[in-house]
């Protein structure tokens, strides 16, 4: 059956979901969204520490948005779902994205210190993926993170690079800053 969505009268919803990881969670959520007239637009979903968690952006005809919200409630117990109103965000003129990659011995405060430097320079973290893994040769754990951040037009990237290099030296981690290429992901 062909579905058509009139984009001029749709509502964007942002769903945050979490539950104990098990087979069928995505299917259960997708079924409710489809039956409620919604269209699954984008998502970031992952299993972390035995929990399945993520964010899903859904568009739905405006006159069906409240019904979709209500239809998500029975998922409680399987998935905790919080529904938030989304917005269409236009890309700001002159804004670019950079990629920040970090690798080093795991230690408390890594994310806070790096994100603090980014914030001092006006950057906003758009995406962050991190993990830890065993480092058998070093006898500890490695922390690895990749972030994509938006850079305002007036940001001084040379000063940002210098501050990140100083932080990398203080924390004894490898930290690189490069232009973000959407095709590289």
From TrEMBL:
Domain ACT: 99-180
Lineage: Bacteria, Bacillati, Actinomycetota, Actinomycetes, Micrococcales
UniProt-listed Pfam families: ACT, ACT_6
Xref: PROSITE patterns: ACT
Species the sequence originates in: Knoellia subterranea KCTC 19937
CDD domains: ACT_GcvR_2 (cd04869)
Alphabetized InterPro entries for the sequence: ACT-like_dom_sf, ACT_dom, GcvR, UPF0237/GcvR_regulator
Source organism, top-level taxon: Bacteria
GO biological processes: regulation of DNA-templated transcription
Protein name in UniProt: Amino acid-binding ACT protein
């Amino acid at each position: 059956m062909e579905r058509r969505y009139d984009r001029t009268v749709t509502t964007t919803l942002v769903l945050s979901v979490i539950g104990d990881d098990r087979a069928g969670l995505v299917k259960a959520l997708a079924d409710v969204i489809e039956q409620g007239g919604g269209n699954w637009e984008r998502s970031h979903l992952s299993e972390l520490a035995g929990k399945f968690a993520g964010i899903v952006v859904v568009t739905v005809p405006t006159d069906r948005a409240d019904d979709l919200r209500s239809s998500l409630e029975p998922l409680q117990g399987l998935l905790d779902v919080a529904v938030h109103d989304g917005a269409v965000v236009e890309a700001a003129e002159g804004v670019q994205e950079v990629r920040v990659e970090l690798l080093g011995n795991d230690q408390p405060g890594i994310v806070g210190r790096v994100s603090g430097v980014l914030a001092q320079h006006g950057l906003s973290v758009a995406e962050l993926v991190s993990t830890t893994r065993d480092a058998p040769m070093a006898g500890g754990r490695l922390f690895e993170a990749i972030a994509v951040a938006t850079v305002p037009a007036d940001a001084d990237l040379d000063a940002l690079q210098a501050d990140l290099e100083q932080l990398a030296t203080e924390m004894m981690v490898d930290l690189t800053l490069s232009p973000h290429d959407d095709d590289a992901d």
